[in-house]
Specification:
By secondary structure, this protein is an alpha+beta fold. Among the domains are: 8-136, Acyl-CoA dehydrogenase/oxidase, N-terminal domain (Butyryl-Coa Dehydrogenase, subunit A, domain 1, Orthogonal Bundle), CATH 1.10.540.10; 155-278, Beta Barrel (Butyryl-CoA Dehydrogenase, subunit A, domain 2); 450-583. The protein is 58% helix and 12% strand. The protein contains 17 helices and 11 strands. It has helices spanning 8-18, 32-60, 75-84, 103-137, 140-152, 280-316, 340-372, 376-412, 414-417, 423-431, 440-451, 458-474, 481-507, 509-543, 549-565, 568-577, 581-584, and strands at residues 63-65, 68-70, 155-160, 176-179, 185-195, 204-211, 224-229, 231-233, 239-242, 245-250, 261-274. Strands 3, 4, 5, 6, 7, 10 and 11 form a 7-stranded mixed beta sheet that branches. Helix 6 (280-316) runs antiparallel to helix 7. The chain binds flavin-adenine dinucleotide. Flavin-adenine dinucleotide (FAD) is lined by residues 159-162, 167-168, 193-195, 253, 256, 261, 432, 435-436, 438-439, 441-442, 445.
């Protein structure tokens, strides 16, 4: 059985103490008390409703018969409870029936959903992303008609990008859209791997489909976005006749078995354009960017359950004796947690999870500022910051989430590899997060190729400046000066790597490509390190010489991160500076 209790104390720490800020215009009602109540209620729903369905949902999986998909037992009721309690509408626009909660709070709720049932989370998660794309690029008519039902969760949403021959390279996309002269289009083509493409949770499914118009230029510049409902709504907004979209099969996959991954055929399906012709990628990127941050949160969510499960097991399982002398003489052996190697694994998971949570809320806070800050300059700066950090959050968190699941299995030994304890499910479920929404390799290319040079390096400074300022202000901290100086060395490695890529990558893009994945990890470690030094300095301040288990553990975990994880920055710098030669010199025939 997976162990999970929502880490509410840490959530409150990052939300109110580490990143605490005055409410933005329009969010005044979301006081600290209300935010805490939301988190507590979400924790209850997730642990009482979603967690008990996680392992059975994995065993049962989804069922496919004659184009109909059934989700595992209990999912329908859970979804009903989820929408009736308003969880799907938490951070949706109030204009369409949403609650308009801050992204900071919503991301923490999302983390809990991912911790307790990632498969379930995909259904409302995709609906939210599709709503955002529609809200930002759809016509008023489409928005007024579809958004209220999507926000309420009565209808769900999908993103239909992938085709059999076209995954990362969307320029190869073949699905066609033919205008009908009445404002509608006929969509034809085959899409694969579509999450929530068909299921029994909602009365209608609203597909957002990328397709080409007859006069479309080749490549990604010729892609448009269309809204294609499963059932064409009648004038009263009720699902009417069946549209020309059908589910040919669901995929049998490694994990995430309760999430239906569908092959969809569009046969002259009726759809409506979202945004301008040939500008579909622009509209779809609203959904993709939102989903990338959500997928990062999936990694964090799984990482937390992996950690908590491993801690529970390490305290319970008796094996061997402590190297420093017997700790529990009345027992046949000491619990696993006395062993340094077990602690290495537990603390690695913990340091990564808490660091990611802090970084996630920092980015979410910038999302809120980008949308609501009164000052347009502040909004633009926040947007640049979010854009810079999006590939880092997506790839780093999902890499670390999978690493945590892997470490949890190792902590359990053979009992982690077999099904009974549920940690092998965490590894299987989390693996896809490194692949979908743009593989982590592609996120790294996005970081070095687009985000670093964006706005002549100005975006990068949105991260570098606060880090430099903090180091300058705290290097002589009476208790943590050494920690801050150690962190500064990691940051120095990132600065050197950035200069190397900027110089080499300009003349030879393959150099940037060869460095990309290591650079993203280096960037991510330095970003987590920033969260950790800030958290440690704050914890010392809060303690003020007194004792408190929470703040004491914060400082201890920060120390672990600085001494045992951040030093990887030096090795990554070496790898980056080695350049592309050892990768690219070998002839293709030698492989
Ligand atoms: C369970 C599941 C759910 C999914 N849900 C959805 C969904 O809801 N909607 C949807 O549209 N799609 C969905 N997908 C598809 C997913 O987004 C794609 O699988 C993913 O984008 C990668 O595409 P691909 O599988 O075709 O791999 P490919 O694009 O063939 O890539 C294979 C490898 O090559 C690398 N690569 C490719 N191009 C480059 C390049 N230019 N430079 C360097 N490396 C490169 C990739 O990083 C990867 O390692 C889902 C997939 C799965 C398995």
């Amino acid at each position: 059985m997976q162990t999970y209790n929502a880490p509410l104390r840490d959530m409150r720490f990052v939300l109110h103490e580490l990143h605490g800020a005055a409410p933005l215009p329009g969010q005044e009602e979301f006081t600290q008390e209300l935010a805490d109540t939301i988190l507590e209620e979400a924790a209850k729903f997730c642990t009482e409703v979603l967690l008990p369905l996680n392992a059975p949902g994995d065993v049962e999986g989804c069922h496919y018969e004659n184009g109909v998909v059934r989700t595992p037992a209990g999912f329908k009721d859970a979804y009903k409870g989820f929408t009736e309690s308003g969880w799907g509408a938490l951070n949706a626009a109030q204009k369409y029936g949403g609650q308009g909660a801050p992204e900071t709070v919503a991301k923490l709720v999302e983390e809990m959903i991912c911790s307790t049932n990632l498969s379930f989370g995909l259904y409302p998660g995709l609906t939210h992303g599709a709503s955002l794309a529609l809200e930002s690029h759809g016509s008023d008519e489409l928005k007024d008609f579809y958004l209220p039902k999507m926000v309420s969760g009565e209808w769900s949403g999908t993103m239909c990008l992938t085709e059999p021959h076209c995954g990362t390279d969307l320029g190869l996309l073949r699905t066609k859209a033919v205008p009908q002269g009445d404002g509608s289009y006929r969509i034809s083509g085959a899409k694969i791997f579509i999450s929530a493409g068909e299921h029994d949770l909602t009365e209608n499914i609203i597909h957002l489909v990328l397709a080409r118009l007859p006069d479309a230029p080749a490549g990604v510049k010729g892609i448009s976005l269309f809204l294609v409902p499963k059932f064409l709504p009648d004038a009263d907004g009720r699902p009417g006749v069946r549209n020309g979209v059908s589910c040919a099969a669901i995929e049998h996959k490694m994990g995430l078995k309760a999430s239906a991954t569908c092959q969809l055929n569009f046969d002259d399906a009726t759809g409506w354009i979202v945004g301008a012709p040939h500008r579909g990628m622009q509209a779809m990127f609203v959904m993709m960017n939102s989903e990338r941050l959500s997928v990062g949160t999936q990694g964090l969510g799984i990482g937390e359950t992996a950690y908590q499960s491993a801690v529970a097991y390490a305290k319970d399982r008796l094996q061997g004796r402590s190297l420093s002398g017997v700790k529990y003489p009345d027992k046949a052996a000491d619990p696993l947690i006395v062993h340094p190697d077990i602690r290495r694994m537990l603390l690695t998971m913990r340091a990564n999870n808490e660091g990611c949570r802090a970084l996630c809320v920092w980015v979410a806070q910038a999302m809120d500022r980008a949308a609501l800050a009164a000052d347009p300059v502040e909004r633009a700066e926040a947007e640049e910051f979010v854009a810079l950090l999006t590939p880092v959050v997506k790839a780093l968190f999902t890499d670390l989430g999978f690493e945590s699941a892997n470490l949890a299995i190792q902590t359990y030994g053979g009992h982690g590899y077999i099904r009974d304890h549920g940690v092998e499910q965490l590894a299987r479920d989390s693996r896809i997060a490194m692949i979908y929404e743009g593989t982590n390799g592609v996120q790294a290319l996005d970081l070095v190729g687009r985000k670093l040079p964006a706005n002549m390096g100005r975006s990068l400074r949105r991260f570098f400046h606060p880090v430099s300022e903090f180091i300058e202000a705290n290097s002589n901290h009476p208790l943590l000066g050494k920690m801050v100086q150690g962190y500064a060395r990691g940051f120095g490695a990132l600065q050197l790597a950035t200069a190397f890529i900027a110089e080499k990558g300009l003349s030879d893009p393959e150099e940037a490509g060869a460095a990309a994945t290591d650079y993203l990890r280096l960037f991510g470690l330095v970003a987590l390190g920033f969260m950790w030094v800030r958290a440690a300095v704050l914890a010392v301040e809060k303690l003020g010489g007194t004792e408190d288990e929470f703040y004491g553990a914060k400082i201890g975990t920060a120390r672990f991160f600085m001494e045992r994880i951040l030093p990887q920055a030096g090795a990554l710098l070496f790898t980056i500076k080695a350049g592309k030669a050892s990768l690219m010199d070998m002839e293709e025939a030698a492989f």
